[in-house]
Design goal:
This protein is an alpha/beta fold and about 325 residues long. The chain has helices at about 1-30, 70-80, 95-100, 115-120, 150-155, 160, 170-175, 245-255, 275-295, 300-305, 320-335, and strands spanning about 30-40, 40-45, 50-55, 60, 85-90, 110-115, 145, 170, 185-190, 190-195, 200-205, 215-220, 225-230, 260-265, 270. Helix 8 (about 245-255) runs antiparallel to helix 9 and helix 9 packs across helix 11. It starts with a helix and ends with a helix.
Length: about 325
């Protein structure tokens, strides 16, 4: 009898673990979708990354390819739904998590990015040492990170970082980053570049060095929509303010000089021009507030406690990024960007 009970419990446990494993596998599947924004402009999702594409009679104009697996899925969906090829891939910036996988569309598309884009794909010269945040992985002290030593994001992205495929990560490769699968632009521009296809216009606009030296937004004037992958945030704090808050204020001001209604972001929810105007106001309030605290002789900790920026308390990442943003502006004002 006891054995029968144990066997019953074991069978139930096995069934439970099987269901749990099945659920975990389902959760691991990427979340992907295509939704219409307005007219012939659509937004495609890959988990928490998004791009947009414009369908015309002569082909498709697409922004960031995101990654290779998503691009393969999207290419199939575009062929099935619209029966026209991708003719342009327009890059917002060279970060690997937005710009990878473009080779999937290289058979039909022209690739456009800012003139600073190619530099992000080149190895820095001079045999630089491992960055400080990577040295702790160098267990044997040989100045390289072997695959067995790699941990965290470096382990996950090892193949994308290992430019010469020698199973060793050098300082130059670590500084360059995980861009092995970023297809280089075939056309570059300095300030603005207009693409015309099927009677539609799309404009790439350089926004300066906010977030990345090759940052651009993609403007769809007829659809009154602007796309920005990491610089545009709707009711959401930016992840960082590099190289400084002044560059961010200038970038968002450049965007808000455009005539648009819809802000299509590269992460989280989309918004309106009012949301991006609010983002500009936040950046200005942050800069002015920290400067006032420094002028009063307050410490970083004192400013972080007093500058609560309550108007933006309901924004996503308020609890995690407010103090970080204050620290970034404080460091800039102290001459330590």
């Amino acid at each position: 009898m006891q054995r029968t009970i144990h066997a019953s419990i074991l069978s139930v446990l096995v069934a439970f673990l099987s269901l749990a494993g099945s659920g975990a596998a389902q959760e691991a599947e990427p979340t992907r979708s295509i939704v219409n924004i307005t007219g012939d402009l659509y937004r495609a999702q890959n988990n928490n990354h998004y791009n947009v594409f414009l369908v015309t009679s002569d082909g498709i104009v697409m922004t960031d390819p995101i990654d290779r697996e998503f691009s393969l899925w999207l290419k199939g969906e575009l062929a099935r739904r619209f029966s026209v090829p991708v003719r342009y891939v327009l890059y917002s910036h060279p970060d690997w998590d937005h710009a990878s996988g473009g080779v999937v569309f290289a058979d039909t598309a022209e690739f456009v990015g800012h003139e600073n884009f190619p530099a992000a794909l080149a190895l820095p010269g001079g045999n630089p040492p491992l960055p400080a945040n990577a040295r702790e992985m160098d267990a044997n002290g040989n100045g390289l990170i072997e695959r067995a030593e790699a941990s965290g994001n470096t382990s996950d992205r090892f193949t994308l970082i290992d430019e010469n495929r020698d199973q060793l990560l050098s300082g130059a490769e670590m500084i360059r980053g995980a861009v092995n699968d970023v297809y280089p632009p075939t056309t570059t521009f300095s300030d603005r570049h207009t693409v015309t296809l099927g009677g539609k216009r799309v404009v790439l606009i350089y926004t300066g060095e906010a977030h990345d030296p090759a940052s651009a937004v993609i403007y769809f004037p007829d659809e009154r929509t602007v796309f920005g992958a990491d610089t545009l945030q709707a009711k959401r704090f930016p992840g960082g303010l590099g190289p400084n808050v002044g560059a961010w204020i200038e970038a968002i001001n450049t965007v808000n000089e455009l005539d648009y209604d819809i802000a299509a972001t590269g992460h989280a929810m989309m918004g309106t021009k009012a949301d991006i105007v609010a983002l500009q106001a936040y950046l200005q309030d942050l800069a002015v507030g920290v400067a006032a605290g420094v002028a009063s002789g307050n410490s970083l900790q004192e400013i972080q406690e007093s500058l609560t920026l309550d108007e933006y308390r309901d924004w996503d990442r308020y609890d995690t990024q407010r103090r970080t943003h204050i620290a970034a502006v404080f460091a800039t004002l102290q001459g330590n960007p």
